[in-house]
Amino acid sequence: MKKQKSLKARTRVVKTVIYIVCIFLSLLSIMPFYTMFINATRGTYEIQSNSISLIPSTYLISNWKVLINKNFNPAIGFMNSMIIAVGATVLSVYFSSLTAYGLVAYQWKWRQPFFTFIMAVLMIPTQLSIIGFFQFMYKLGLTNKYLPLIVPAAASPAMVFFMRQYLLATLSLDIVNSARIDGAGEIRTFNTIILPIMKPAVATQAIFAFVGSWNNLFTPLVLLTDRKKYTMPIMVNLLRGDIYRTEYGSVYLALSLTVLPLFIIYFILSRHIIGGVALGALKE
Amino acid sequence: MKKRMLLLAIVLLVAGAMVFAQGQTDAKTAKGSKVINLWSFTDEVPKMMDRYKELHPEFDYDVKVTIIATTDGAYQPALDQALLAGGADAPDLYTAESAFVLKYTQGDMADYAATYKELGIDVDKLLKEAAIAQYTVDIGSNGRGLVGLGYQATGGAFIYRRSLAKQVWGTDDPKVVQAKIGPGWDKFLAAAADLKKKGIAIVSGDGDVWHAVEGASDKGWLVDDKLYIDPDREAFLDISKTLKDKGYHNDTQDWTDAWYADMKGIGPQPVFGFFGPAWLINYVMAGNSGGTKIGEGTYGDWAVCEPPAGFFWGGTWLLSNKNSKVKDAVGDFIEWVTLDSSNTGLQYYWANGTLFGEGGTKDVVASGTVMAKSDGRLDFLGGQNMFDAFIPAGEFATGRNKTQYDESINNIWRGQVREYTAGNKSRAQAIQDFKQQVFDNLGIEF
Amino acid sequence: MRKNGVSYAKWGYIFSIPFFVVFLVFSLYPIIYTAVIGFTDLQGAGRSSFSFLDKPFDNYRIILANASFLQAMKNTPIIWIAGFIPQILLALLLAAWFTSRRFKIHGQAAFKVLIYMPNIITAATIAFLFRNLFGYPKSPVNDLAMMLGIIDSPFYFWLSAWWSRGIISFIQFWMWYGNTMIVLIAGVLGIDPTLFDAAEIDGASSPQIFFRITLPSLRTILLYTLVTSLIGGLQLFDVPLLFNLGGPDQKTLTTSVFIYNQAFSGRYFYNRASAASMIMFLIIMVCSSILFYIMRDKDQAKLNHERRLERRLERKRRRATAKGVDA
Q1: Which of A104, A249, B115, C307 is least enclosed, having the fewest CB within 10 Å?
Q2: Is residue A149 part of a domain?
Q3: Cβ <8 Å between C159 and B76
């Protein structure tokens, strides 16, 4: 009896600690963004005399005007990043699922060697081949094109690995076989039956892929020189260098604008992401 | 239901962005099929282009503008790659700043520049007529001829607060202040001590002094393809250390928030002055003074005098791509900006601040002919005629102490000076590390 | 497996072809190309033709003697490890808490959403934001610290090597612990629940369950996290670049920033940058291989081996019976 009670008490203490830690971490996630959003509404003079404030001010519109006059156009960066990130996400998710399915559902001679190969190329730091990649694309005339930023995503070893783990845990070959009996072709079976089964894993991996592509600075910085094709991270990179941009309120506003679209999408999708993880349990 | 909402939200977001992006590009490429790609590191030349089009309606070209700031050296790699890549998106007209212009006129990228003669400009006649400052011609010429010219003369002066001068020395007369702060850095530091007694910092940060030291030194970073540290530049280590140790400045870095704040006079100590050419007054200080007419902020409380050491800083050169398909049009514009000394040429407007109507910012221009007929009185300087100080300063402007890697090397040097003044390493170590890093990054031996 | 005499094996190949082709063209070829450039004289803006050096390893010699590169080789693992250790520990702790059956944490979903949030934001934005937050002499952090009386005068964060590294490591930690947590939670949920039931019946304590059951079962996932983080961490680029350009005094210069600077600015040393890339490439490959070796599933490997033997026997037997039928 006594033991039970002390256990309960201890549980309560631990739980309190857990809540405190979680609330602290949540605040840590919010704080920098809160500062950013607030400062986006404040004037340069206000920020210079006191850089933190909890209450918004009234300079949002004047900051916006400064920004527009300075040739900063978040809409273009957003569009470009969107095209690249969506393209890369769709390709990587589809072909990784396809490859993973090929690895799980079929018995073929090179199956195990191919999986070993994927695990091996998982270790390849792709960024380090940028010089060869740049020279190659330069010769093909593909600099300033989106293709080299999208197509390589079709070979994402890490995602194949993840998808394979998921399929091993969830796929029952009976479904596949009954589809075959119904006369469905292999590709159709994959598209109409397997992909829906993989939805939770797809959701999680899609958001990872999207975020990775959206945030990539290195490759676009090397490949894109046309201002109309700049992605969001390149724009932020240039923002840092602008010596004539003396209006700090508008800098914070520009940063906020690079973040805002992602925030919106994220909070709409968040239920799916977290839900996807819950369902997307990985079998060892 | 939820899924539909989500889809709808994403579609709306994308559509909104598309419409917005479309509207932005439409505005610029609505009419005509002839395109000029203009690359620059500020909006100064693009704005001149806008004005040129307004003044010359027959100039039927669309101008696609690319602006990339230079602070971290982002402009150069992007411009280089755009020039290399060629094609329809290649720059037709591009600008270079004094810190790296040599690379494009005489250095690694010089082959891409068209000569002004190729653009159809009668160079020899116009140079004489306009009496262009010789140093901008020297910097802009290579074996093939003249490929780049600037429109400003960027000799520097010392720009100080009148009210603070009165407080410390009882007068704001430029002649007196000039004699207090110079010539020479010893007198400058003595003046700093005077000011410090009243709680005033003589400059905002060591960067202000650096531009004067850099522009005043006899030789540049490279002598016979080897790294060379001019004694004047080496002495900057000691000047900077003194400034920091004695609290003679607010320890800001130039082009940062705190530096601008000092122009408004809201830093930890009030700041006495800044080093700079006329453009610093017009394009940086005026906008950051916290006012737009006398009495507001520090506006109108400034004056200029000769600096402790003559120097020049900055300047923009205009170049054209030799592969450009629109050379004639680019040539017309370049001629208007750099060589037209008439009352309808850019430099006349520029010197008198009338490019966008009366009462604009005034500047010192490259053409002696134009300067002779212009008026440099500024409200910002309490009615002082700034040309009195800046025209003599122009004689210090020279291309002799420039190299094509100045931007990169300066960044490394300034970093090491900061390490030394912060007490992180010894003087000898800072110089050693400087040499090493220049060698590591640029392959320049010492 | 064979039904109606149709063999499905070819679909295994077909489904793997896109991956394989894209990999060959966009990954393998550039790697080989990069490796080749490392042995050539390819430098200078705009060049793409090259010839091989008389002394093939000259670029490697130059790079290995390059003090800035060596500094970068030191910085990169320091920054990675300082960010990764707290990241994995906190992620494990949170994963344990959020999957624990004893503490049913309310508002889990909201916590997870907020904790993962930093990961979705452009690293460039975050680095830039933190640069402003830690500015000198005026900035939110300096103002706050002075208001609370922690310091008397503003602190020059950008000039302190350890603060700069620390801030970059913190950004990395802060951006990625949520991601790691999500991956680990997925792993924990995949563990057979009967294992936990049995442990609970045996009266095991939470820490015991965590260390004896959860952790060992997570081996593959941990390996995956470790390897991907190693690869990402040793290629760190955007945060140090945007935070302080690798400064102060190159103390936050990472190898990727170094390679970028060598190849795409200044004098365009494509060849030296390629050599530096290949050195890093080898290091990362060796480290990951070691990780794989250490964390390989010994039982599984043994099992696989046995299975393979079995299958071979099975095939032999079948062939024998087939022959028997034929005969």
Answers
A1: C307
A2: yes
A3: no
